[in-house]
Amino acid sequence: MSQLIRDGQWPMGTRIPSEPELVELFGVGRNTIREAVRALEHAGLLAPRRGDGTYVCGRNPLAGAISRCTPDPEITDLITTRRALESEAAALAAQHADADTVTGLKALLADTVAALDAGDVERYALLDLEFHSAVVTASRNPLLIELYDGIGEVMRRNHRDLADATSGTGHPRGHHDVVEAIADADPARARDAVHRYLETALDVTARDAAR
After folding, report:
1. CA-CA to 152 of 20 to 30 Å: which in 36, 77, 146, 194?
2. Name one GO molecular function term (predicted).
């Protein structure tokens, strides 16, 4: 079941099959299915809804662990964590990204800019997270990608607050600098570009909190 969730065959928000259907699907007993479902609920991947079955609520067990430890994280903590992971990921991406990867990043950036220009904060927030996730994926570091995927779910749950913090940070200039540094295979410049962009986001958040 966890693999079906991770692979996206059971997307977020999907109601999983009933217990008898799961027994037939996996060829195991009811007790085994119940134990597996309970384990996935504890891991933060599944959530029961009274009278309406069990639904997929997460893809990465790490996200569940993070949510249990810090159920209501501060936006500044999320941005600081992003800065630590994404700046190094961008440097690695500058070493490993090929032309197709750069093209994909530029396309994502164009969509993000369009959403911002249109004043669609919801779409901007989701595309912004997708852009940064693509940069991390371009690092080709499996452990870094896994760690980011875990906190990525936490960030998606707080995406509107993150959008408020980042929409006034000089975007799209900061994002453009990241992509250009990756395209130029310049790790130091890519690292610095992400660091500057998210440092500005921290400053915006601090100013808003002081009002």
Report:
1. 36
2. DNA-binding transcription factor activity
